[in-house]
Recover the amino acids of this structure.
């Protein structure tokens, strides 16, 4: 028996099984497509680092059993999300993966976005948008875990294998965005700081500024609140859930 999930803004959903199915992008009125393109072009002029690459949006999410969710996904490009700024138009929710990386003393690694990014100074978990499968591949739980592991390695330098990540909770936040949050094995603080320093240095050696410019380790929502700057909307509930589970 399926169950429609509560409205946007509710707490996290615990999940042990995720069923995935591809869906078609909903049709878009020509006037909304034109307005979307104008918004996108304006955004690119303001921030030339934006690119219209392929990405996955969420077409629907429902509960199909205890700790089991069905997620439909849709191939779009980043331009699609400019619809959020078009009056009367509807954008599909974004879909992303992220990782709770604990320390061996029970803290959680959070990372700050660099000033040049679309969310300068924002604290969040390591992660990123879900990418569509290519070349006949499928988007399944294994592929999603692989993308989460890749983001963890690229952003903070931690080389955890996909099979060592466990899908832990699903979040829903701003604009209905859906986050698939994975739990990684605990590591010592010294190892995490060394890995982050190494990946940041490697980026700068290639003439690029890292997407993340700092990390912090927090034990509780109170410690998280002490970090200056904006926070991703899912971050406090995730830290609260992790600290309460120990």
């Amino acid at each position: 028996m399926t169950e429609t999930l509560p409205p946007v803004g509710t707490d996290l959903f615990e999940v042990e099984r995720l069923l995935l199915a591809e869906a078609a992008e909903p049709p878009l009125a020509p006037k909304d497509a034109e307005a979307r393109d104008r918004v996108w072009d304006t955004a690119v002029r303001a921030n030339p680092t934006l690119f219209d690459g392929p990405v996955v949006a969420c077409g629907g999410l429902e509960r199909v059993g205890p700790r089991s969710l069905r997620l439909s996904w849709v191939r779009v490009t980043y331009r699609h999300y400019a619809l959020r700024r078009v009056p009367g138009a509807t954008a599909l929710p974004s879909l992303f993966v992220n990782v709770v990386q604990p320390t061996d003393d029970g803290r959680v690694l959070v990372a700050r976005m660099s000033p040049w990014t679309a969310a300068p100074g924002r604290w969040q978990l390591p992660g990123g948008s879900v990418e569509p499968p290519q070349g006949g591949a499928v988007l399944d739980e294994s592929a999603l875990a692989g993308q989460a592991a890749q983001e963890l390695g690229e952003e903070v330098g931690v080389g955890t294998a996909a099979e060592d990540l466990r899908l832990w909770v699903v979040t829903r936040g701003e604009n209905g965005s859906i986050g698939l949050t994975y739990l990684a094995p605990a590591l010592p603080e010294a190892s995490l700081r060394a890995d982050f320093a190494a990946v940041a240095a490697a980026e700068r050696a290639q003439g690029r500024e890292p997407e993340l410019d700092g990390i912090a380790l927090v034990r509780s929502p109170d410690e998280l609140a002490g970090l200056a700057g904006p926070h991703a909307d899912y971050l406090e509930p995730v830290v609260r859930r992790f600290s309460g589970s120990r």
Notes: The chain has one domain: 3-244. DSSP finds five helices and twelve strands in the chain. The mean pLDDT is 92. The helical segments are 30-46, 141-156, 189-205, 221-225, 235-244.
